[in-house]
Every structure is written in C-alpha cells, then in structure tokens.
Amino acid sequence: MGDRFPGGVISKTPPVVVAPVDGEGGSASGLWTLTEQLDLQKAGSWPKGLLPRELYAWGNNYRGQLGDNTVAYRSSPVQIGSELNWQSTSVWNHGLAIKLNGTLWSWGYGGNGRLGLNSTTNRSSPVQIGALTNWAQASAGDNFSAAVKTDNSLWVWGENGKGQLGLSDTPDRSSPVQLGALTNWAQVSCGGDHCHAVKTDGTLWSWGDGANGKLGLNDSAPFPGSVSRSSPVQVGSLTSWANVSGGNDRSGAVKTDGTLWCWGINQYGQTGDGTVITRSSPVQIGANTNWSNVSHGKAQTGHAMALKTTGQLYGWGAQSRGAIGDNTVAYRSSPVQIGALTNWSQVEAGQFNTVSVKTDGTFWAWGYGDKGQNGDNTVIRRSSPVQVGALTSWSQGASGANVTVAITKG
Length: 410
Hints:
The chain contains 1 helix and 30 strands. By secondary structure, the chain is an all-beta fold. The protein has 2 domains: 1-51, no CATH class; 54-408, Regulator of chromosome condensation 1/beta-lactamase-inhibitor protein II (Methylamine Dehydrogenase, Chain H, 7 Propeller). Strands 4-3-30-29 form a 4-stranded antiparallel beta sheet, with no helix packed on it. A hairpin with a 3-residue loop joins strand 17 and strand 18 (250-255).
C-alpha cells in the first residue's frame, strides 16, 4: 500500500531505485520508517530524487562537534543518527544542517548561544532549532551563526561582541533573530568574527570586526584597527556578485562574470593576488573569468581554495601542514592548480585542511590530520588529496576547526 504525493509514490518499502525526471518524480520499493514518511509528507514531493541523504562526520569532537552523541575523536566517517533526509551542512566548532523538509539543526560547542537553542549548552547530537520548516541555507562562523529562509529573510544568533550579528548592537543572542525586515537576502557566509551576504539584486554586504580590512569596505584606519560595523554595509556599488566566502581574517567572492575577488589579511599570500599586502577592498585575482566559487579557511595564517567552471581546483595561501594540496608545504601567493584533473565539483577550506568532492561522488581530503579530520583512518598530515573510503555517493563536504561533516547524495 502506498501514498501518492506530487512528484512520486511513497510505498511502505525503502527506496531501492529512484529515477527522477528533471529533478522530480520517481518510484521506490522497500520499507519506509515513520520519520521518513513524515519528512516526505512535509516536503510534499520527492526530494529531487536524491535519497537517501545521510549525514557523516569525523575529526575533532571534544565538545560534541561530530554530533555522534560522544566526545570521541573519529579518524573515519561515522554516521550521525539514522535520518536519510539531510540537505546541506556547515561547520566550524559547531555544526549546522538543514533537512530536505526545511528544518534547521545544530550541535557541538554551545558557547555564546551559537547553536540557536536558547542556551549555551554543548550538544553532542543534532537538536532542531525551533519548529519552522522554511530554512534554505545556513552558515556556521567561529562563534556565531546565520541562516537564510526560503522567503529570503536573514537570521543571526550567537556571539556579538564585535557586531558580527549585524543587529546594530553587541549583546549575544542564543536563538535566531531576524536581521532587519528585508526579504532579499540570497546567501550568507560567516567568518571568524565578521559576516558577508549577497542579496538577490547582486549587491554584496558585510559587517562585524573590520580588522585587517576583512570587511572589504576600504577603511582607512591603520591595520589592525580598521573600522568594525555592527550593521550591514554595502561593499562598493556593484550588482554583479554571485557568491561570497568569509574566512578567519579574510574573504573572497565570485562575480556573475566569473571573476574572482579577495581581500583581508595577506601576510602569507592568503589574498592570492601575488603579493603579501593586506587588502581592505576587493582585488581581482588574475584575469580569468571562469571561476565558480571560492572558500577561505578557518585559520588566520591559513589558505583558500577555489573551483573553476572547468572542474579544475586551485589553492593558495599558507600551508605549513599541506592544506593547499599541491604536494608541498610552500606558501603560495597566487592560485596554483591541484593536479591536472577536471572533475572537482565542490571544495571547502577548513582550519588547516581541505575537503572536496568529485563529480564521480568520491570524497577527498588533505592537510593537517592530527584529529583524524582527513577521514583516512589515520592522524597523518597529507600534502596532496587522499580519498576518504570507497563510497561514490558524496554530495557535499564541510570543514571546520579540525572537524569534517559530509552528506551523501543517495
């Protein structure tokens, strides 16, 4: 006996084959759990044919960052719970994840209220934030969090001593608070103690700590005394920004024309413009127009990674632990290609390591591995990519403070 929903049939048997057309439709056979049935009911349709979508984590876990209900380090992937409907995730020293039904979950270090659970208690397994089912994208910063809803409203919570919540004040918040009343936010990215967001009109905005020019607002105050902002300020006047990434003390973004721009601290080439000059406003990296996204790492003396539309992977910055992945520990002040492959699909720079997914669904990691964050069942530092297990069903990886979280794609 089955129940029919828009886009597919949910039977009392678990999914063995799901064959969507244009991202919808499909069929399955097997036994569904009650939770899975309820989640699919809330979604109202097949979740784009990508089931199961399991959540895994590995690496540092002394504050429950892995969400596996322990505080034990893991050097290989461990599944978080038994749910099969995870959509996206973000991690620093706490984790955030959104399910296909639009619910938002958090776990790990709870200091300053960064988990959004109206407390400062650490959580060693995912806990739902409120009861809403309209969360679209979430970003974990060093000590705070931000998320965008499906109505394009922006919500923030956690530490706020440097105005990183953008609420025009400095008190911490332990549960989500809407930033202003606008409903035109498209994407948000939290850094160490600053934040960036892109609006639906293509404008770029930043707020929080302005040290080392990381806000990109061309502040004239001497470094590191650049002006901090407790509410969003537009970066320039352009309306061509596509996506943004906030790192520890620097940031980067890609424009709709495929150009790559970076700014912030640069003593080890983290900006990628071929210099070691700190930049307080966006500077273009090279002349290429085929960049798709960029990820700045979680360490001040860290690195950055970026993908091109051709599937090529590049890295630059500091890498005493091999985090760039070019089989060296040499610092790079401009992007260097990682190998010669053209099948990289997603990448994220962590604190001292990097994780990436290929188009074939394999998962790769490299850099510092002292807490098992490379997931290769060792604590060995890697200066070039190493495959994590043998699965070919990974869809996304997120790397934080020596912790990795990833989602399969079914």
